Amino acid sequence: MKDLFGKAIYDFQTHNSPEDIITETSISEEDEMSVAYLFRSYDEMPKIEQKALQLASGKTLDVGCGAGSHSLSLQNDRNLDVTSIDISEKAIETCIIRGLKKAKKTNILDFEGEKFDTILLLMNGTGIFGKLKNCNSYLSKLKSLLNPGGQILIDSSDIIYMFDEDEDGGKWIPSDNEYYGELIFNISYKGEKEEPFDWLYLDYNTLQNAAIANGLKCELILEGEHYDYLAKLSL
């Protein structure tokens, strides 16, 4: 990976002529995303993210922390002990510049040695699973990092609305996917293209079934305005 997402974050932080990130998926056209959005304050966050931060308590792990905005809110406004991880080296460098005390470049599947009261996976937290078949390995890993009484707060969207309907009200789903929420994501930044990567959107029922299969309780906490939701997984 070229870490273009991380470069964009780092450029914004260091005032190095940041540009919009161009995103495209296997089912959607090119779209521009302002890097500034990743640096939003608590008041600028969607209700689902605000709710997750309100529910966070105790020792917290922020998975896929990006520019660190969720972590900073918890560390600075709530005085929580937060560890922030991301696979992007430049994103973690940015988090450290922004004042996060515990920011590490690592993949959640490789993370060991600590347990947490709250684990956050926000901004389509199921995305990092990549494919439906990977849910068990990720949920099993997350479960292993929980303290007794701990919680996993995760958000996603049911993207069935993005597919065309036939005359009977059914949906036209491409047959090459095991599950309609499996997308291939492409990112471009400053004329460079990132390697395409798998990204997973999970509808709530599928997440709930996967959670139960891994010995986790699953609760629907909040539904957003656009097929998105926040769920809480616990032991």
UniProtKB/TrEMBL annotation:
One GO molecular-function entry: methyltransferase activity
Residue span, Methyltransferase domain: 59-188
Origin: domain of life: Bacteria
Keywords: Methyltransferase, Transferase
Keyword Transmembrane helix: no
Alphabetical list of Pfam families matching this protein: Methyltransf_31
BP GO terms, sorted: methylation
Identification of the protein by name: Class I SAM-dependent methyltransferase
